[in-house]
Amino acid sequence: MAMAYAYGLILSIYLMGHGLVAIPRRLIRDATVSARLRRLQTHAPGIHDKLDEAIDDLAQVEAQILQLRQRKNAMPRDLQDWVEELYDTSNLPESRPTAISAPAPPPVVTERYMAELSRKVKRARHKRARFTGEWNHLVRQAARLQSLIDFPSSQRPKSANMRYHVQVHVFPALRIVAGVFLACASVGLIWSEVVHEKAPKLSLVGKSVVHHPSSSRGQIGFAGQMISAAWLLYMCAAALYSVTEVKVWGNRALVRRQTYAESACWYSLQVAKLTVPLSFNFITMIDPTISEGTTFFRFLGRLINLTPVIGNFSAYFPIVVLLPVFATLFNLYGKVKNIIGFGVIEDEHDEPGAGTWREGRILIERELQADGSQLNIASSSLLSSAEPSPRHSADLNRPSRLTNNNRASAARRAAARMPAEDEDTSDRAFFQDVGQRMRNTFDTVETPAWLRDIGEGIKKPKWMSGDNDDGGQGSGEGSNFFGKLFGGGGGGGGSSSSGNIRL
Question: Are residues 206 and 321 in the same domain?
Answer without folding.
Answer: yes
